[in-house]
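Hmm, how's this folded?
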Amino acid sequence: MTAAAALGWMAGGHDYFLSCLQAVGDDELAGPSRLPGWTGRHVLSHVGHNARALARLAHWAATGEPTPMYASTTARAQEIETGASWPADRLRDFVVAEQDRLASALGRIAADGWQAPVVTAQGRTVPARTIPWLRSREVWIHACDLPSGGDFAAFPAAFLDVLITDALERRRTVQSVDIDVRATDRGGPAGEGEGGGERVAGPAADLARWLTRGERSPRLRTGTGAPLPSLPPWL
């Protein structure tokens, strides 16, 4: 995955998020989202504040000045809760404005700056070229968390494959979940067949939804016929 590809997915995901958001009324945003314990306003607050936090990493890469995503371990949750209390029109504008600021901040990274190390909110040290990918995940997936939101089936095929590989790697290496997957609607994403655990097969969109959200689908099947393994939260 190149930075250019991730930048394209980031822009496309933002557009997809906004298109899904247009179908959600302000009153509906005040109600439950598809994420437990969050309203639609929480989703918007998170998406906007995530762009702001990733812009700090872009500033870090462009200038060499360490600027963490969040000032403390509690800052992320505090920002989301604060933003969730804002009026819906302010939140809608906030998501657009912060995405624009992130895009501008990424545009200030010089060619050699894309290899500069930055530290994510989870404490991982990654090259700056990872920043657009982190944002891409947020906008595409959270579009599906909006009330009456989007669908993983609308995601670009190449993006879905990288998302599956990314989620599967975290499940295996960080969470020690012994699973493998096979996308039945094409050749399957990179990383398929590397695990030694339960094989789960089905359409790529359903696999991505299950790996990132834990949502089961009747189109997913295990190789042994056993029920799908239960998954802990992805991030």
